[in-house]
Design a protein that fits this description.
This protein has about 170 residues and is mainly beta. The chain is built from two helices and nine strands, in the order H-E-H-E-E-E-E-E-E-E-E. It has one domain.
Length: about 170
Protein backbone atom coordinates (compact mmCIF):
# COMPACT_ATOMS: atom_id res chain seq x y z
CA UNK A 1 0.00 0.00 0.00
CA UNK A 2 2.90 2.33 0.79
CA UNK A 3 4.30 1.73 -2.70
CA UNK A 4 0.96 2.65 -4.27
CA UNK A 5 0.85 5.81 -2.16
CA UNK A 6 4.40 6.73 -3.20
CA UNK A 7 3.58 6.19 -6.87
CA UNK A 8 0.47 8.30 -6.55
CA UNK A 9 2.32 11.11 -4.83
CA UNK A 10 5.06 11.12 -7.46
CA UNK A 11 2.69 11.20 -10.44
CA UNK A 12 2.04 14.74 -11.62
CA UNK A 13 0.44 15.71 -14.86
CA UNK A 14 1.24 18.82 -16.75
CA UNK A 15 -0.07 19.51 -20.20
CA UNK A 16 -1.18 22.35 -22.38
CA UNK A 17 -4.49 23.96 -21.52
CA UNK A 18 -6.87 23.42 -24.46
CA UNK A 19 -8.95 26.50 -23.73
CA UNK A 20 -9.34 29.32 -21.25
CA UNK A 21 -11.78 27.53 -18.98
CA UNK A 22 -11.62 23.98 -20.32
CA UNK A 23 -8.67 21.87 -19.28
CA UNK A 24 -8.06 18.15 -19.31
CA UNK A 25 -5.78 16.74 -16.64
CA UNK A 26 -3.78 13.65 -17.44
CA UNK A 27 -2.98 11.06 -14.85
CA UNK A 28 0.43 9.49 -15.09
CA UNK A 29 0.45 5.79 -15.94
CA UNK A 30 1.75 5.05 -12.43
CA UNK A 31 -1.39 6.62 -10.95
CA UNK A 32 -3.69 4.61 -13.22
CA UNK A 33 -1.81 1.38 -12.47
CA UNK A 34 -1.98 2.10 -8.73
CA UNK A 35 -5.74 2.69 -9.00
CA UNK A 36 -6.28 -0.51 -10.95
CA UNK A 37 -4.22 -2.76 -8.72
CA UNK A 38 -4.49 -1.40 -5.21
CA UNK A 39 -4.37 -4.23 -2.71
CA UNK A 40 -6.21 -2.11 -0.12
CA UNK A 41 -9.41 -2.15 -2.17
CA UNK A 42 -12.21 -4.43 -1.08
CA UNK A 43 -14.33 -6.02 -3.82
CA UNK A 44 -17.13 -3.44 -3.66
CA UNK A 45 -15.18 -0.44 -2.45
CA UNK A 46 -12.50 0.93 -4.75
CA UNK A 47 -10.18 3.94 -4.62
CA UNK A 48 -9.12 6.20 -7.44
CA UNK A 49 -6.06 8.13 -6.24
CA UNK A 50 -5.43 11.45 -7.99
CA UNK A 51 -2.64 13.99 -8.08
CA UNK A 52 -3.44 16.72 -10.59
CA UNK A 53 -1.38 19.78 -11.41
CA UNK A 54 -3.08 21.96 -14.00
CA UNK A 55 -2.73 25.58 -15.11
CA UNK A 56 -6.11 27.33 -15.14
CA UNK A 57 -6.65 30.93 -16.11
CA UNK A 58 -9.45 31.39 -13.58
CA UNK A 59 -6.98 30.45 -10.82
CA UNK A 60 -4.22 32.69 -12.15
CA UNK A 61 -1.87 29.75 -12.65
CA UNK A 62 -1.37 26.21 -11.44
CA UNK A 63 -3.95 24.38 -9.38
CA UNK A 64 -2.75 21.32 -7.45
CA UNK A 65 -5.33 18.75 -6.32
CA UNK A 66 -4.68 15.42 -4.61
CA UNK A 67 -6.57 12.79 -2.67
CA UNK A 68 -8.64 9.66 -3.21
CA UNK A 69 -12.07 9.15 -4.68
CA UNK A 70 -13.61 6.20 -2.82
CA UNK A 71 -16.32 4.49 -4.84
CA UNK A 72 -18.76 2.10 -3.16
CA UNK A 73 -20.60 -0.43 -5.33
CA UNK A 74 -23.79 -2.29 -4.47
CA UNK A 75 -25.26 -5.60 -5.56
CA UNK A 76 -28.90 -4.57 -6.29
CA UNK A 77 -29.95 -7.90 -7.80
CA UNK A 78 -28.46 -11.28 -8.64
CA UNK A 79 -25.66 -11.01 -11.18
CA UNK A 80 -25.41 -7.19 -11.19
CA UNK A 81 -23.06 -4.70 -9.52
CA UNK A 82 -23.57 -0.93 -9.79
CA UNK A 83 -21.82 2.17 -8.40
CA UNK A 84 -23.66 3.53 -5.40
CA UNK A 85 -21.76 6.39 -3.80
CA UNK A 86 -18.50 8.32 -3.83
CA UNK A 87 -16.60 10.23 -1.18
CA UNK A 88 -13.33 12.11 -1.06
CA UNK A 89 -10.60 11.14 1.37
CA UNK A 90 -7.40 13.01 2.10
CA UNK A 91 -8.21 15.91 -0.23
CA UNK A 92 -5.65 18.67 -0.54
CA UNK A 93 -6.00 21.59 -2.92
CA UNK A 94 -3.94 24.67 -3.65
CA UNK A 95 -4.07 27.52 -6.15
CA UNK A 96 -0.37 28.41 -6.43
CA UNK A 97 -1.04 32.05 -7.29
CA UNK A 98 -1.55 33.63 -3.89
CA UNK A 99 -1.03 30.29 -2.11
CA UNK A 100 -4.84 29.89 -1.78
CA UNK A 101 -6.19 26.80 -0.05
CA UNK A 102 -8.93 24.98 -1.96
CA UNK A 103 -11.76 22.80 -0.65
CA UNK A 104 -13.60 19.95 -2.36
CA UNK A 105 -17.38 19.59 -2.23
CA UNK A 106 -20.24 17.56 -3.64
CA UNK A 107 -18.61 14.34 -4.84
CA UNK A 108 -21.20 12.26 -6.66
CA UNK A 109 -21.73 9.42 -9.08
CA UNK A 110 -23.22 10.75 -12.32
CA UNK A 111 -26.31 8.64 -12.90
CA UNK A 112 -26.82 10.05 -16.40
CA UNK A 113 -23.39 8.67 -17.41
CA UNK A 114 -24.02 5.16 -16.05
CA UNK A 115 -24.02 2.30 -18.56
CA UNK A 116 -24.25 -1.41 -17.80
CA UNK A 117 -23.70 -4.38 -20.09
CA UNK A 118 -24.94 -7.44 -18.21
CA UNK A 119 -23.78 -9.80 -20.98
CA UNK A 120 -20.11 -8.78 -20.61
CA UNK A 121 -20.45 -7.90 -16.91
CA UNK A 122 -18.98 -4.48 -17.53
CA UNK A 123 -20.15 -1.08 -16.41
CA UNK A 124 -19.21 2.54 -17.08
CA UNK A 125 -19.91 5.51 -14.88
CA UNK A 126 -18.90 9.11 -14.28
CA UNK A 127 -17.88 10.82 -11.06
CA UNK A 128 -17.49 14.50 -10.38
CA UNK A 129 -16.73 16.90 -7.57
CA UNK A 130 -16.34 20.64 -7.21
CA UNK A 131 -13.38 22.56 -5.85
CA UNK A 132 -13.87 26.01 -4.37
CA UNK A 133 -11.64 28.66 -2.89
CA UNK A 134 -10.89 32.35 -2.73
CA UNK A 135 -10.64 34.18 -6.03
CA UNK A 136 -7.87 36.42 -7.22
CA UNK A 137 -7.85 39.91 -5.65
CA UNK A 138 -10.88 41.77 -6.95
CA UNK A 139 -12.26 38.64 -8.62
CA UNK A 140 -15.02 36.15 -7.99
CA UNK A 141 -14.47 33.14 -5.75
CA UNK A 142 -12.79 30.23 -7.50
CA UNK A 143 -15.03 27.34 -8.59
CA UNK A 144 -13.66 24.33 -10.47
CA UNK A 145 -15.35 21.11 -11.61
CA UNK A 146 -13.40 17.84 -11.82
CA UNK A 147 -15.04 15.05 -13.82
CA UNK A 148 -13.87 11.47 -14.34
CA UNK A 149 -15.84 9.86 -17.18
CA UNK A 150 -15.81 7.08 -18.18
CA UNK A 151 -14.59 4.88 -15.37
CA UNK A 152 -14.89 1.25 -16.47
CA UNK A 153 -15.36 -1.70 -14.16
CA UNK A 154 -15.72 -5.45 -14.53
CA UNK A 155 -17.61 -7.61 -12.07
CA UNK A 156 -18.36 -11.25 -11.31
CA UNK A 157 -20.24 -13.07 -8.56
CA UNK A 158 -21.52 -9.81 -7.07
CA UNK A 159 -18.04 -8.27 -6.74
CA UNK A 160 -16.04 -5.70 -8.66
CA UNK A 161 -13.03 -7.48 -10.12
CA UNK A 162 -11.37 -4.57 -11.91
CA UNK A 163 -11.71 -0.79 -12.01
CA UNK A 164 -10.07 1.28 -14.71
CA UNK A 165 -10.45 5.00 -13.95
CA UNK A 166 -10.70 7.69 -16.59
CA UNK A 167 -7.03 8.45 -17.38
CA UNK A 168 -7.78 12.05 -18.44
CA UNK A 169 -10.23 13.73 -16.04
CA UNK A 170 -11.65 17.07 -17.12
CA UNK A 171 -10.72 20.01 -14.90
CA UNK A 172 -12.81 23.05 -15.81
CA UNK A 173 -13.38 26.49 -14.35
CA UNK A 174 -17.03 27.31 -13.79
Amino acid sequence: MFACFALTQSAQSVGPEPGEDDAVAELGSATVEAAMGQAANTPNKREIPFNIKKPLQCAGGDVILSGNLVITFIHPRVGVVTPHSVKLEGFRGLAKSGNRKLEATKPRVLEQDFRLDEATKEGRFGVQFHVTGPGLPGGSPLRIRVKYNPNVYKYADGKVTKLTPDPMPIVRCE
